[in-house]
Amino acid sequence: MNDKVLAMIMAGGKGSRLSPLTKHRAKPAVPFGGKYRIIDFVLSNFINSGIFSIYVLTQFLSQSLTEHIKDGWQFGSNILRDHFITPVPAQMRTGGKWYQGTADAIYQNIQLIENHNPDIVAVFGADHIYRMDIRQMISFHRAKNSDVTIATLPLPRSEAGGFGVIQVNEDWRIIGFQEKPKDPIPIPGQPDMALISMGNYLFNSDVLQEVIRKDSENNDSEHDFGKSIFPEIYQKKRIFAYNFKRNNIPGVISSEKNDYWRDVGTLEAYLESHKELLSPSPPFDLYNNLWPIKTASYSSPPAKFACDAEGKRPEISNSIIAEGSIINAATIINSVLGRNIIVESGAHIEDSIILNDVKIGARAKIRNSIIDKKVNIGDDETVGYDAQQDRQKYYVSESGIVVIERGSGMAS
Length: 412
Prior knowledge:
Layout: E1 5-11, E2 31-32, E3 36-37, H1 39-48, E4 53-58, H2 63-72, E5 84-88, H3 102-107, H4 110-116, E6 120-125, E7 128-130, H5 134-143, E8 148-156, H6 157-160, E9 164-168, E10 174-179, E11 193-204, H7 205-216, H8 225-233, E12 239-243, E13 261-263, H9 267-277, E14 304-306, E15 315-317, E16 320-321, E17 326-328, E18 331-333, E19 336-337, E20 342-343, E21 348-350, E22 353-354, E23 359-360, E24 365-367, E25 369-371, E26 376-377, E27 382-383, H10 387-393, E28 395-396, E29 402-404
Parallel strand pairs: 1-4, 1-6, 4-5, 8-12, 14-17, 15-18, 16-19, 17-20, 18-21, 19-22, 20-23, 21-24, 22-25, 23-26, 24-27, 25-29
Antiparallel strand pairs: 2-3, 6-11, 7-13, 8-11, 9-10, 9-11, 28-29
């Protein structure tokens, strides 16, 4: 790949639909899969694709995200000046305003593009779980002589209405847009399928700078690529849709899907995507060493599974347990436990996600719950069994998922 590529990762959204997990952190900083954070997936895709010039645009509640990037995503030499992953906080360069949309976020940091002088700018979101070889998308971009390329995913029309839908011709050149339509327009030759935008874009650098400068002067614009810029320029510029289903990743096992892509923007989607990790034949496999998901490394000891004084053993099935955790003769079923968790004897955890630094007391029972960091659940307490009781103490979603906020719980 001869093109000089600069990545601009959009990591500044509030993630309000994932509250209360986003009450104290940005959505891309939310832990995922026992040891990762959501942003690790897009960063891993760029590093595995051989793209090492990366700015991460932050905004709301960015401290833990910035610290995570510092702890896990720094290159070791100042000699390689084009190798960097740098958080960029919102600096209100245009009249003292927060970012007004995705295009405005790039415009407010246009000097970074000018200084780096890339051939291609990759504008990607930080909120999704997937594997992608971005080099393959760049090859498509160049083969089509495209000004802009949008990563897209074919979905059944019955499922596409909740997303931005893209219309293409037979050559996959974009000819129209629909925003969360009731009746999505199908893909040519595939009457039951529609194309949704994944929120990942490649721009020729000169085209990007041109369109965001022009957009910044339009007071009626929402300053968003999907809502404002693309519907305005698709008839004037060469804009193509890249089919994510054609992206091939090395090391994918038979059960894993090359086109796996999940927006974990709600508590239900967050819990469901963890259940997919635990499947005997997972559609997304964390254990692919040829396309690894990288993250910060901590000096926690290995996980420990201990019998109690009477010789009772822990019973663990279909679960992920991260380093530093100690499981004392407890039962854990269909659950994901993060780092440095202590589960006392007789506790029962099922269909739940437990984040880092949590203590679960003896004989406690937890079901269908998400417990945030630094929570202490006392002996004999129950969570997820009595909805009325849970609502008096914790946040409970409409579908019944109990969420215990960071730093709360009952002392044992």
